[in-house]
Amino acid sequence: MGNRTRRSRAATEQKQYAVEAEWSEADLALLEGLRKAEALLPDDAPRALISVRLSVLTEDTTSPVRQELDLRLLARERGLRVVGVASDLNVSATKVPPWKRKELGDWLNNRVPEFDVLLFWKLDRFVRRLSDLSTMIDWCLKYGKNLVSKHDSIDLTTTAGKIMVTIIGGIAEIEATNTSTRVASLWDYTKTQSEWLVGKPAYGYKTARDENDKVILVHDEDAYKALHWCRGAAMRTTPASARRMVRILIRSGLCGPGLTPSTLLRRLRNPALMGYRVEEDKSGDKRRSKIVLDSKGKPIRVAPPVFTEDEFYSLQKVLDGQGKHQPARRLGGATKFLGVLVCHDCTTNMTVQKTRTKGRDYAYLRCGKCKGGGHGAPNPVEVYGQLVEDVLKVLGNEPVMTREYRQGAEARKEQKRLEDSVSYYMSGLEPEGRFMKTRFTRERAERTLDELIGQLESIDPESTKDRWEAVHDGKTFRARWEEGGMEAMSADLLRVGVKCEIKRTKVKGVRAPHVHMKLMIPKDVRDRLVIKEDDFAEAF
Questions:
Q1: pLDDT at 492 over 70
Q2: Domain 205-322 has CATH 3.90.1750.20
Q3: Closest CA to 34 of 65, 1, 57
Q4: Of 79, 88, 155, 460, which is the most exposed, with the fewest CB atoms less than 10 Å away?
């Protein structure tokens, strides 16, 4: 292999890959040659989008550079103009379908008119589930796109090609299922062993090698110190709160700045701290772990304990006594217009907090960063009502527009037919042309030519392009929101990016602050209000 140098795609005037990839001088020279060949293509050459994907970039995988160059060579062979490269690296095709990937998903959901053919290196580089493949075939047929693979006989323009792509997709799904089964089997086997085979150790432990070069679990010294300090702080006569523990641990350097009270409590409640093998407990509504038992019903020890059983269970008793038993969340949430109502001072979301005093319930809108939630905004229902009134005044009469896809293939075909006909009659009206032999044929040809030119001029140039069009469905947003209620209005406001600032001013002699609301609407709100159909909403 020739000398390779790390070159970003900025050097080639392309968008950089999501992870670092190597471009050799030979690769860049080939890329430049392919671009020069593309420049010679006719203006109406089919447009190709290249899709590059890898689950993990290793020495054994086909590099994204090689995938792209191979697909550019294929595009040259087929006379396709490459209009973009969607690179999604470190992305699993089994877990993430094409329309959910960061780059390819943007093309599929928002940039449909910009390409005609989707190129990929191999089918398993594109999808690994038959259901995903079926969804993509339906999508391509709806929008008039084609799927082309470098190493598979795939062409949606023929019946045989559709059958072949389904068969290949089935094989890819079987392979993915087999891989998933092997991984699940390995985990099931691992749970029954006292040796540490795979997986990430629980907090408090790290992996090491014993004298026989086997992987074992040992105490992580910093984590061990942190856990024992936390237990001591919790067991005091006046126990420290989890929030205070977090501040001290971060300040001491025993834990990183990303530690939160909920994470710390989850670590302190993990029975793995007794040295036992654990697994996720899915029976409750909280994120907890439970001890794995062997065939005799006994715990499987995999490491030296951080806490003895007495130490661990006495700690759990204290934590249970300190825990707050919050009521179940109300369906739909306690706060209406969450994400729309924001604090003027700290710009965080306003949420409803309820208190009960002397048998009476009180509700306040509070923010997340102001001290004590700011002055609070009492009567959230009144705030909601005012917001609804303000929004209806500004946006209520806007028409509900839906984005629909229009293909220009038929208009282009008609335009080409008329252009050919005009050329035919123009050549026939030349001095020695076929229509110049008699006065009758000349006048007849001239009238026909005028009619053809008129028809050609009547074709809207935009109608010959693949494009999105906003179509009015006959309703206004006032009618839409009257039917759907606050939930429908809240969803639309979030989608459009409308915010409402809540400013609370203390009034002397009055307990409740004065609430001032400021509606903030983006300048391009009409474009944002257009409803975009989700082609993949029912794919799962």
A1: yes
A2: yes
A3: 65
A4: 460
